[in-house]
Amino acid sequence: MHFPPHLSFTFEMLRRHRHALAEIYAHRQPRLRLQDISPESLKQQGIEVLVLDFDGVLAAHGETVLTPELHSWLQSCVATFGAEQVFILSNQPRPDRIAYFHQHFATVRCLAGVKKKPDPQGLEQVMRLTGRPAAMLMLVDDRLWTGGLAACIAKVQFTYITRPYIRFSKRPVQELFFMTLRFLERRWAQLG
Ligand SMILES: [Mg+2]
Questions:
Q1: Would you tell me which of 30, 82, 89, 132 could form a disulfide with 136, CB atoms 3.0–4.6 Å apart?
Q2: Distance 63 CA to ligand 1 centre (A)
């Protein structure tokens, strides 16, 4: 059976990193939201660069602006990690999102023009831009088969958001699709 190249890549990488992803799942923190994470404690763990997913992590799927409660969290993140050490790595780097961050968080860079996660290209780009090794990077994502896998491939540290933002009333079809994917990838990770 022939799959498109990016799917073949994902399947091969899932096979290769399934134990690492099972470990991430086994050690997950239940109902973890982005605002539950302390930028200070990450810094104390040796993290120097933070890479954030957008959909589900900073806002519900398809949104443009981050939720109000995360505004001050992201500001404290920038203050903790320093200018240009915080990145957004979304598989949907839409121009309106990039413009939003440019306007409200001028030093936070949205990566665009890189291959979608689980391809590690975005994380490798962050390492190039910051000159920091993989061990000093932390990716925060609500998906195992995209962000989680990219982190495993790039050997970057990973925080699994287990209580993603969902706005079912606004985008029922899209949210149902991603809820199904999250369910499937969790089941798959349990098989390890
Ligand atoms: Mg996401």
A1: 132
A2: 11
